[in-house]
């Protein structure tokens, strides 16, 4: 399955080998995501200025899994929306695959807080939506969508409508949709925030597997420290108002990890360390959730 | 240690006589209409109400049969139906197009929206006499009245539907760099359909009202014209027979729209 998933040229025309070497040659050393001196100031309707993000610098390497944790309202979502090209008017520079971001790019797949499926489309048609927008070959797109639905464990649900699915299944479909045009980078904004704890654990295991199997660069935003530590190569800890990175934690274990790492003392230490970092910033304890 | 809690037992209230006796709804509905008809018949037969004011219920089917037999009913019903359907079709095309332009383009919104708000509160049926002057004595003026009054529910609902679009779903397309047209046809338009159909449903009733009122104002054909004729001859049973036919036309129109709604909005969860 893996070569099939990777072998999907984003332009739908060139052969997979040409697409991969071509992109690799274009950016031999540049990281998947490079953020330099990023700052975003909002103007509220009342006329106040809000410093959502100030002076952020970070890189995400190709195939790396990086999470951002931070209290509510620390500007995490703003960072993700800037990376996705959905928010402009910021200072500093953001590059994706070595190219400066000027708007949305098909090199990125986004999974939002809500699944945001189109209720009038079947699961398969929802997953194929990016293919229609990007004018990719219908047959190839369909084949890929079916393979991805299998990957996220939704085989047999292709012709169901979103209302017939549970919350977790909808979010799986949204992940498949974000991958269908074979983006290099997957941006996820608290994708499992609305799910119950049990489903969330299952989804984290699935995500860990999918991230490795599909070979994507993943940038995840989450509230849950343990989720971040469990899934990531690196965890960026953000402070609130104005949002900036206060520490970067590297998790060296091989991915994907089994749930048993959660029970290890090192894991608890890391989680506790991040929690202290966040609390030191004056974040109310309730905004930091520990799953275990 | 086991925690023991005892919850107070709430005794179920004993149902009243009404809730314990179960009668099927359709029986009550039939009973109601039967007793209303019976009461009318009784009041008129006993002379409490003059039969020139209120027809004997039993005389309505007879009158209806006469209209059917002579072919007068079919001919005039067809005229009215044609006027209402034409008016509705014009209103639907205009309402959907104009609604989409207003919802999508700021310029159209700024130019048209104030007038739409102003016109919406105006009883547009009052234009019927003027429209007769403008569009003539024939079906044209009736189509115009039907179109004018059924335009607004479609227009207003189309605008509301297109504007109510969930920004999360739009973000999915925007993140792919989708064009404005793709956003419209893939998200906004299907998203607006529940609103559009409620507008079409109201408009179908309005179109029938428009055609009838247009015929009241001045016509030589149609069910509205027949009503005015029968009324002037104090043929009250015939008036009621025609009203009955109009009711059936209204129900049919509603049924057709409802059928289409179910076909297009298969994805909405049933209430």
TrEMBL record, chain A:
CDD domains per the UniProt record, alphabetical: ABC_NrtD_SsuB_transporters
Record's keyword terms, sorted: ATP-binding, Nucleotide-binding, Transport
A Pfam family: ABC_tran
GO molecular function per UniProt: ATP binding; ATP hydrolysis activity
Cross-referenced PROSITE patterns: ABC_TRANSPORTER_1, ABC_TRANSPORTER_2
PANTHER family given in the database record: ALIPHATIC SULFONATES IMPORT ATP-BINDING PROTEIN SSUB (PTHR42788:SF13), TAURINE IMPORT ATP-BINDING PROTEIN-RELATED (PTHR42788)
Annotated protein name in UniProt: ABC transporter ATP-binding protein
UniProtKB/TrEMBL annotation, chain B:
Record-linked Gene3D superfamilies: MetI-like (1.10.3720.10)
Listed InterPro entries: MetI-like, MetI-like_sf
A GO biological process held by the record: transmembrane transport
The keyword rRNA processing is assigned to this record: no
Matching CDD domains: TM_PBP2
Transmembrane portions of the chain: 26-49, 84-103, 115-137, 143-162, 195-219, 239-260
Topology versus the membrane: Multi-pass membrane protein
Pfam families referenced in this protein's UniProt entry, alphabetically: BPD_transp_1 (PF00528)
Record's subcellular location: Cell membrane
Keywords of the record: Cell membrane, Membrane, Transmembrane, Transmembrane helix, Transport
GO cellular component: plasma membrane
Keyword match NAD: no
Domain ABC transmembrane type-1: 77-257
Family designation: Belongs to the binding-protein-dependent transport system permease family.
Name of the protein this chain belongs to: ABC transporter permease
Species of provenance: Reyranella soli
């Amino acid at each position: 399955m893996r070569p099939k998933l990777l072998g999907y040229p984003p332009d739908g025309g060139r052969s997979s080998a040409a697409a991969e070497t071509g992109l690799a040659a274009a950016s031999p050393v540049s990281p998947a995501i490079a953020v330099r001196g990023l700052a975003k100031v909002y103007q509220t309707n009342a006329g106040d200025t809000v410093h959502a993000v100030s002076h952020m610098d970070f890189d995400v390497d190709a195939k790396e899994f990086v999470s951002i944790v931070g209290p509510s309202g620390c500007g995490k979502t703003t960072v993700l929306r800037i990376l996705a090209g959905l928010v402009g008017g910021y200072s500093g520079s953001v590059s994706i695959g070595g190219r400066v971001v000027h708007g949305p790019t098909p090199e990125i797949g986004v999974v939002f807080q809500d699944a945001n499926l189109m209720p009038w489309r079947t699961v398969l048609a929802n997953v194929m939506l990016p293919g229609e927008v990007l004018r990719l070959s219908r047959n190839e797109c369909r084949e890929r969508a079916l393979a991805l639905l299998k990957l996220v464990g939704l085989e047999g649900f292709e012709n169901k409508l979103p209302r017939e699915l549970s919350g977790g299944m909808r979010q799986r479909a949204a992940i498949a949709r974000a991958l269908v045009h074979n983006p290099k980078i997957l941006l996820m904004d608290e994708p499992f925030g609305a799910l119950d704890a049990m489903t969330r654990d299952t989804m984290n295991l699935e995500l860990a597997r999918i991230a490795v199997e599909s070979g994507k660069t993943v940038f995840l935003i989450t509230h849950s420290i343990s989720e971040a530590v469990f899934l990531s190569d690196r965890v960026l800890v953000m402070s609130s108002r104005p949002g900036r990175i206060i520490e970067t934690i590297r998790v060296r274990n091989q991915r994907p990890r089994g749930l048993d790492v959660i029970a290890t003392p090192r894991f608890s230490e890391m989680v506790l360390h991040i929690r202290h970092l966040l609390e030191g910033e004056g974040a109310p304890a309730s905004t930091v959730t520990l799953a275990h | 240690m086991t925690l023991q809690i005892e919850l107070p037992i709430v005794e179920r209230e004993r149902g009243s006589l009404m809730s314990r006796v179960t009668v099927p709804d359709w029986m009550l509905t039939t009973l109601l209409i039967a007793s209303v008809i019976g009461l009318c018949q009784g009041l008129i037969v006993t002379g409490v109400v003059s039969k020139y004011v209120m027809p004997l219920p039993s005389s309505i089917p007879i009158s209806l049969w006469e209209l059917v037999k002579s072919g007068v009913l079919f001919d005039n019903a067809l005229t009215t139906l044609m006027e209402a359907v034409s008016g509705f079709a014009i209103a639907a095309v205009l309402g959907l197009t104009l609604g989409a332009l207003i919802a999508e383009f700021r310029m159209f919104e700024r130019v048209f929206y104030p007038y739409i708000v102003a016109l919406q509160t105006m009883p547009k049926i009052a234009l019927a006499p003027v429209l007769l002057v403008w569009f003539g004595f024939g079906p044209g003026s009736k189509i115009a009245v039907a179109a004018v009054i059924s335009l607004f529910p479609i227009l207003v609902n189309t605008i509301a539907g297109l504007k109510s679009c969930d920004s999360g779903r739009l973000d999915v397309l925007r993140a792919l760099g989708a064009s404005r047209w793709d956003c419209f046809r893939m998200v906004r338009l299907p998203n607006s359909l529940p609103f559009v159909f409620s507008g079409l449903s109201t408009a179908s009733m309005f179109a029938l009202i428009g055609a009838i009122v247009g015929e009241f104002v001045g016509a030589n054909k149609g069910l509205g014209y027949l009503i005015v004729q029968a009324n002037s001859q104090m043929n009250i049973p015939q008036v009621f027979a025609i009203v009955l036919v109009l009711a059936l036309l209204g129900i049919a129109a509603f049924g057709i729209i409802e059928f289409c709604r179910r076909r297009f909005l298969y994805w909405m969860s049933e209430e």
